Amino acid sequence: MTPTAVTPRKTPPTPAISARGLRKSYGDRPVLDGIDLTVPQGSVFALLGPNGAGKTTTVQILSTLLPADAGQARIGGHDVAAEPEAVRALIGVTGQFAALDQLLTAEENLLLMADLRHLPRAEGRRRTAELLRRFDLTEAARTPVSTFSGGMRRKLDLAMTLVGDPRIIFLDEPTTGLDPRSRRTMWEIIRTLVVEDAVTVFLTTQYLEEADQLADRIAVLDHGRLVAEGTADELKRIVPGGHVRLRFADLAALDAAARHFRAGARDPEELTLRIPSDGSIPTLRAVLDVLDDAAVRAESLTVHTPDLDDVFLTLTGHGTPDTTTEMTR
Q1: How far apart are CA 149 and CA 177, in angstroms?
Q2: What is the distance between the alpha carbons of residues 51 and 118, in angstroms, rounded to a whole number?
Q3: In 3D, which of 63, 32, 96, 99 has the Cα closest to residue 327?
Q4: Which of 12, 175, 225, 315: CA 20 to 30 A from 103?
């Protein structure tokens, strides 16, 4: 009898970041109230929340800068509390404000970071030249940082984070204060890090569009608790308000359609009918089939699905985030 071949089970890859039950209080005021996180390798994870929600505190705990009061966190399989040196060897951190020496040039700042990382001199110079080229700073390499624009400073700050070739990068509101063009440049740099270098990015942001554009998964933090987590599309689907908007040529067509969609909201002045919808193709097909069966013709059809602004408003009740610096750590 031929023995049955047994296929060995594949061990799931170690998450880049995992946390269970993280808690932190300042005095009698809780800042983190037992949060759980799992971030796969080679992905972008965005932590979204209003001022004072605990975003910066989360980054500080995960990057070994602040001890948690309770709970456990692991970075690349290493315990943050028990193995801080091993964790620091894997990570890079870019804070809300550029950590640059204003009196030094871009090249000197990078070489200084290479020295702090204990890179051999030749390797430090090679890495510096590579990063200056990658971030389009070669022409400004010997220019004092004090003359740099905000966008150039943020690019150099991120370049300094990459001197040690980290596999996991924490970006705490990396585009705060940048103009739209510089912000989009930073987005492209972050995408390149993930796609070409397989780096994992943990991003905190108050720009909803930024999370929507960059993140594979998004978690919403409010009053120290995670109130939702998922992809951008998943989060948008949990918020009510999605609808199909039909416009008709005249009132008779509008009334005829309204008789077949009892849940529809009729607007006789605009000659439109709003029908609740999740925006999926089967739902749209069903709407069109009803119109076809009823021999009613719509002049136009538009689909509205909730965006991250709607998600934020619904889940936190604080209004949309602004660019104000998070004061509560």
Answers
A1: 11
A2: 37
A3: 96
A4: 175
